[in-house]
Write a structure and sequence with these properties.
Elements lengths: L13 H17 L22 E5 L2 E7 L5 E7 L16 E8 L5 E11 L5 E3 L3
Antiparallel strand pairs: 1-2, 2-3, 3-4, 4-5, 5-6
Length: 129
């Protein structure tokens, strides 16, 4: 009987995994904000130790992080335009991000951002309006 190394099934290529890890590091750096103004609500940053889930939903690539406190980051990229969308609403290079956080009182705060495109270094940058 031969001893074989454990089998690992990767959802993405090694190059894509490297880019995802760089993106995760950038999101972690951007979550470290200065002290809030008096009277403002402080939302806890993501617990980035949680694993990333990458999956497809129809023609959409979804990268989903969530933590045990209820925070969530979801990045989406569509590969084809839904028939009901006008052509100017969609671009195959665009990414969109949904942010969800809970405050200390358990209220959910949500924000959507986008569109973004990937630059030459694998980082998402906002598309100018």
């Amino acid at each position: 009987m031969q001893n074989h190394p454990p089998l690992t099934i990767a959802l993405v290529t090694p190059a894509a995994a490297t880019l995802l890890h760089q993106l995760q590091a950038e999101l972690t750096r951007s979550a470290q904000a200065p002290s809030p103004d008096p009277g403002s609500v402080l939302l806890a940053p993501m617990d980035w130790e949680r694993k990333l889930k990458v999956h497809g939903v129809g023609d959409t690539l979804v990268m989903d992080w969530s933590d045990k406190r209820g925070a969530r980051e979801v990045m989406r990229k569509r590969y084809s335009r839904p028939e009901s969308w006008r052509p100017e609403w969609w671009n195959q290079a665009h990414w969109h991000i949904d942010h969800d956080r809970l405050d200390a009182d358990g209220r959910r705060w949500s924000m959507q951002e986008g569109p973004f495109v990937m630059d030459d270094f694998g980082m998402l940058v906002e598309v100018a309006s």
